[in-house]
Known about the structure:
The chain is mainly α.
Amino acid sequence: MTLVVFESELGKHVSRITRENSPAVGLACLQTLEKLCTNIIDSPNDAKYQSLRSRNSKIKSTILNPTGGSEVLTLLGFTKRVQEFEEVWHFSASESSLNKLRKAQVILGESLQGAKQEAERVEQKAKEAKEKGSAEQQRREEVLRHIEADRQNVKERVAREKYMR
């Protein structure tokens, strides 16, 4: 696969991650994938970065469960294997695969900026909605207090009028 085709495919999958998952999940997925690329590029001969256990809770929740995450792993050059009765994603480091990872690191880094902004926007919206809901609740409580005070006033007035007759 040429680098141009690789970039195009990676772009499609990254956009799928951000589009089909919640902003927080998409952001976590992209951050983990970007960190994975960085670790392998920085230490290409370190075996601990070249194997990912599918059972690992962090890998499962941030890469494998979100839509599009496992497709990006495959595109990055990871292959699924069974090792000691356990599913493991393995990366074989070569010069061409490391070049792909470098390109992916750049693309993922750029995508992270947009994903962070979207996650912050959604978080701010949720915060505003919560504050608005809180203000609305306070307004309701104030109206209910006024209604109760009015009922009490009417009750007292009716009692006075009855007494005056």
